[in-house]
Amino acid sequence: MEKDIKKFFEKDRFAHYVGIELVKVESGYAVTSLKLEDKHLNGMNSVQGGAIFTLADFAFAAATNSNGLATVGINCSITYFKAPQGKVITAYAKETSAEKKICGCDVEVLDEDGTLVAKFSGTGYRINKTIDFKEGTLKNIASKS
């Protein structure tokens, strides 16, 4: 199943463009990583906050969609603690609440030394569709009339 979920998320063109890899995904949990390159640096020669945010946001998406309920982000915040050291940053996402319509997820971003770089908190909304990971499609949830 993890293989099918990873294949589904390969369709995220922006995450792919930035260079993010979905390392691990299981129900309510995901790990993503980003090998830092010159293109990820800002004018102060530090990792651009948007690159860190995108890594965390992709981990959030993988974790909250991993159970097959199509989920979109409706609110999120990030706190940056320090500039990452090393050549790789990794985001660990864990769903903290998984209700029928609303879910919550916390993400920690660590640098190569395991030092906390940022914390991301997201709220997701279940959009009344399921994800068929094998087919790579969304399907409407039948409404009860």
UniProtKB/TrEMBL annotation:
Domain Thioesterase stretches: 46-118
Keyword Nucleus: no
CDD domains per the UniProt record, alphabetical: PaaI_thioesterase (cd03443)
GO molecular function: acyl-CoA hydrolase activity
Keyword flag Chaperone: no
InterPro entries, alphabetized: Acyl-CoA_thioesterase_PaaI (IPR052723), HotDog_dom_sf (IPR029069), PAAI_dom (IPR003736), Thioestr_dom (IPR006683)
Record's keyword terms, sorted: Hydrolase
Cited PANTHER family: ACYL-COENZYME A THIOESTERASE PAAI
NCBIfam families tied to this protein: unchar_dom_1
Name listed for the protein in its UniProt record: PaaI family thioesterase
Organism: Ruminiclostridium herbifermentans
